[in-house]
Amino acid sequence: MNLLQLLLPIYVFFQTVSSRCDCMHKIVLLHSPEDYRIISSPDYPRTYCGNLDCLWRVVAPDNTSKVYFYADNLDLRDDIDQIVFYDHKFLIESDNVTESYSCTGERLCRYASTAQYLTIRFKTGGGEIDNYGFQGTVSAREKPSYALMAAVHKYLLPLTVLAVMLLGVIVSIVCCRRTVEADYQPHYKHEHHEEIVEDGSDKLLQS
């Protein structure tokens, strides 16, 4: 076995690690309201690397459009690795912009820009990582299914609490009604029995 054969597996290994840990800053152009793109952490769904700083600058079709991001498969280290969103009214190259929103952990991530331009940044900390990152979509129109899911997430808990409260009220009313009927019916029968006995006694005395 010559030296080249020994070095080839090492070269392939480092090339694989390098591609998995490389982040290119990209500009994503959405050409119409129906257009969308898929963005993801490097080498998704394999585990991602530490100390990443990936950047996507997304442009909606016109200045009346917004950019919508949606991902329901986040697998990030909580409060260590983040997807960060920056709103822009203009396409700028400077990174000196205030953070608008961020996602971390394993929860649903959804964000709508306030203007035509949105920068999405994927930042990771150091250390050993066993998480798989994310895969999401950016589009110029919020998908109906996404809007429905967002409404469900927003109103599910209040509606559940309201349903439990209504159920409790109904059960209380039914129980109280049964208790009242149970207290009333024996008393009624007892009075009726006494009337019969008294009537019978009168008849016996008269006879």
UniProtKB/TrEMBL annotation:
Keyword set includes Isomerase: no
Signal peptide residue numbers: 1-19
UniProt xrefs under Gene3D superfamilies: Spermadhesin, CUB domain
Domain CUB span(s) in chain numbering: 23-141
InterPro entries named among the record's database cross-references: CUB_dom (IPR000859), Sperma_CUB_dom_sf (IPR035914)
Keyword Transmembrane helix: yes
Keywords of the record: Disulfide bond, Membrane, Signal, Transmembrane, Transmembrane helix
Taxonomy, superkingdom: Eukaryota
Transmembrane segments: 155-176
Name of the molecule in the record: CUB domain-containing protein
Source organism of this protein record: Caenorhabditis auriculariae
Lineage: Eukaryota, Metazoa, Ecdysozoa, Nematoda, Chromadorea
